[in-house]
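Progress note, sequence design subtask.
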């Protein structure tokens, strides 16, 4: 193990002194920031979204309280009263943009359900702001009630705003809790954090391809192996590039977290420092060791990175397998395709991180089974990579064929 740590230390020092690695380390996050800045240039010149016009037909005397709430909470809404018939207002909305209509009548007030008719091209955060209008309605309700047991139940029931596009008024839509969006953000923050770690160390791990093939090309493998075993060399490379990946993740997060704190009005660290984060990080690290075993084994079979064959090229694409499942998982995180992706070792890390971010309740049995499969796969691929690396690192002149690799594994 001591020799493996020496190799790891040497790999880290060699790369951290490499100008190309250092430039790429800082250039990548800077490019992301550059694209974000360019995107803001195409927005509004003052950087603010235009206020959404909300037409209000008030039949319960709550208009003044609504205006006061919009002002006190600094909502990006423009309240305007209307006395036109509901059907006429809805018809007008079909020709308008970023405009909504709410009818405050006795029937809606008693049931606690207010329909929000919206036009096209609405602000995506509009419904979140409309939920703030519940406050004056609750105040009015409490004034009118004597707070008996029955009335307390009515008060605690709350008010709900249901969005209905004007061209789909007749379609019954699913009612979504106002807290759903906030809960998703809470789950997404630690998931995104672990995703950055996974991508950083996986991209760094891909340098193992270049490292192993470069040593073969320079014909220094025999010199190195005169004082090390192939297993120690392989382990050292895996540990070293894991360390480089963590350095890259720290740099990415060093750029990303301050910008997120600046751009997003969220208690970021409160959402991030949760117990679930530990599981996310474990999944990311296990994913790296699986991919690293693949990279180091196949890298030893290539005489030169520029002459990689179809087999080696296909293997290099395996870490991107989770992208195949993104659509089905977002559509149904508990569906059959999401479950299948969870149990495929090379897709498990990415699929599992995405599923756990989207699911309200975690399927612990599926999580445990997938982690067991992942750990067993890591052990198996490490053993196979060791056999391939032992022979492949000393083979010069050509890339190994799948038939030759199979012979090395069986030997």
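Output:
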């Amino acid at each position: 193990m001591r020799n493996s740590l020496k190799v790891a230390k040497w790999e880290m020092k060699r790369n951290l002194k490499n100008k190309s690695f250092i430039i790429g380390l800082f250039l990548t996050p800077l490019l992301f920031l550059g694209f974000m800045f360019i995107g803001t240039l195409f927005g509004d010149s003052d950087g603010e979204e235009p206020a959404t016009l909300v037409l209000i037909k008030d039949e319960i005397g709550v208009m003044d309280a609504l205006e006061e709430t919009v002002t006190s909470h600094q909502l990006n809404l423009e309240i305007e009263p209307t006395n036109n018939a509901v059907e006429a207002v809805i018809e007008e909305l079909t020709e308008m943009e970023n405009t909504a209509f709410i009818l405050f009548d006795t029937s809606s007030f008693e049931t606690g359900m207010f329909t929000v008719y919206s036009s096209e091209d609405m602000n995506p955060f509009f419904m979140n702001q409309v939920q703030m209008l519940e406050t004056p309605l609750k105040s009015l309700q409490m004034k009118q009630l004597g707070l008996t047991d029955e009335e307390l139940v009515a008060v605690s029931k709350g008010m709900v705003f249901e969005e209905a596009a004007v061209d789909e008024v007749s379609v019954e839509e699913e009612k979504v809790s106002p807290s759903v969006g906030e809960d998703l953000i809470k789950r997404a923050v630690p998931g995104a954090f672990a995703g950055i770690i996974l991508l950083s160390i996986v991209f760094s791990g891909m340098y193992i391809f270049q490292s192993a093939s470069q040593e073969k090309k320079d014909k220094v493998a025999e010199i190195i192996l005169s004082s090390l075993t192939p297993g120690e060399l392989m382990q050292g490379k895996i540990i070293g590039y894991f360390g480089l990946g963590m350095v890259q993740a720290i740099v990415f997060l060093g750029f990303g977290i301050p910008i997120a704190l600046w751009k997003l009005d969220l208690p970021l660290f409160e959402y991030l420092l949760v117990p679930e984060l530990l599981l996310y990080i474990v999944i990311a690290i296990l994913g790296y060791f699986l991919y690293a075993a693949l990279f180091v084994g196949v890298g030893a079979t290539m005489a030169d990175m520029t002459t990689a064959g179809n087999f080696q090229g296909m293997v290099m694409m395996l870490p991107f397998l989770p992208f195949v499942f993104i659509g089905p998982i977002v559509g149904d995180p508990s569906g059959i395709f999401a479950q299948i992706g969870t149990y495929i070792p090379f897709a498990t890390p990415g699929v599992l991180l995405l599923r756990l971010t989207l699911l309200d309740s975690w399927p612990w049995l599926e999580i445990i089974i997938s982690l067991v499969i992942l750990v067993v796969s890591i052990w198996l691929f490490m053993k196979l990579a060791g056999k391939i690396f032992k022979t492949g690192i000393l083979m010069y002149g050509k890339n190994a064929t799948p038939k030759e690799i199979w012979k090395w594994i069986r030997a």
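The radius of gyration is 29 Å. Work on this subtask will continue into the next period as scheduled.
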